[in-house]
Specification:
Blueprint lengths: L1 H68 L4 H7 L1 H12 L17 H5 L14 H8 L4 H10 L5 H10 L2 H14 L4 H15 L3 H12 L17 H6 L3
Helix pairs in contact: 2-3
Length: 242
């Protein structure tokens, strides 16, 4: 009897040790996967930083080379005069094989300088829909805007509503509120308010979820909270502006 009891205890002890080892291995594996994920994110960030730095340096070098080519030599400036020398350099610079800038002009002061480059505006492609756009988008809330778009007979309303349904409902709501609050602000006040709002909205889950879906995992399947425009809580949106 005593020997049977000892065997039972040994069996239970062996099971307990095995369970402990399995749990420890699971924890180690979880941490290991997490460390790999963090390392991958760091690698991606470093790669993005390196590529952006390369783009910055390449852009600066291209602009510098293009601007340097516009500078006339000292001898040419003395022979032709400053303005004529610059015009001559520009004539040589704007060859078809150097299409970096579409237009350049010597610096002038006053409205006359702008008038030289004024062009008629192209026809407004949304002109036929302006009345309907105003009617739909003048609603007080994003939910009501969506409802008006759904009831709008125009063919333009379908893709507009589809676009609204794709993005974060919370972002739509606080953007609409920010537009309304900023309508009577100065530029400085509007930029300050936008900066404060940015700091606030980054703390909400939709910001991280958007980064995950579009930048990290790139599955293009964000899970917004709330998921529907109709479920937006006005109190939450108002709290972002306090």
């Amino acid at each position: 009897m005593k020997r049977s009891t000892q065997r039972a205890w040994l069996a239970w002890a062996a099971v307990s040790v095995l369970a402990f080892l399995c749990g420890s291995l699971a924890i180690l594996q979880y941490r290991w996967i997490g460390e790999i994920s963090a390392a991958e994110r760091r690698r991606l960030q470093e790669d993005i930083d390196n590529r952006l730095d390369l783009l910055r340096r390449s852009f600066n070098e291209t602009i510098l080379a293009a601007c340097s080519a516009l500078q006339p030599g000292a001898g040419e400036t003395g022979r032709l005069g400053k303005e004529a020398a610059y015009e001559s350099s520009y004539g040589q610079w704007k060859r078809p094989d150097r299409p970096l800038f579409r237009r350049l002009a010597l610096a002038e002061i006053g409205v006359v300088a702008l008038a030289r480059f004024a062009e008629p505006l192209p026809p407004c492609t949304i002109a036929p829909y302006l009345a309907a756009i105003d009617r739909c988008c003048s609603a007080d809330t994003v939910g009501e805007i969506a409802a008006r778009l759904a009831a709008e007979p125009g063919d333009w309303a379908v893709p507009a509503l589809k676009a609204l349904r794709t993005v974060s409902p919370t972002a739509l709501a606080f953007t609409l509120e920010a537009f309304r609050r900023g309508a009577n602000m100065t530029l400085k006040d509007a930029l300050d308010a936008e900066f404060l709002l940015t700091r606030t909205t980054m703390a909400y889950p939709d910001f991280a979820e958007g980064v995950r879906a579009m930048v990290v995992d790139k599955d293009r399947q964000p899970k917004w909270r709330p998921a529907r425009i109709e479920d937006i809580d006005p109190a939450v949106i108002a709290g972002m502006f306090r």
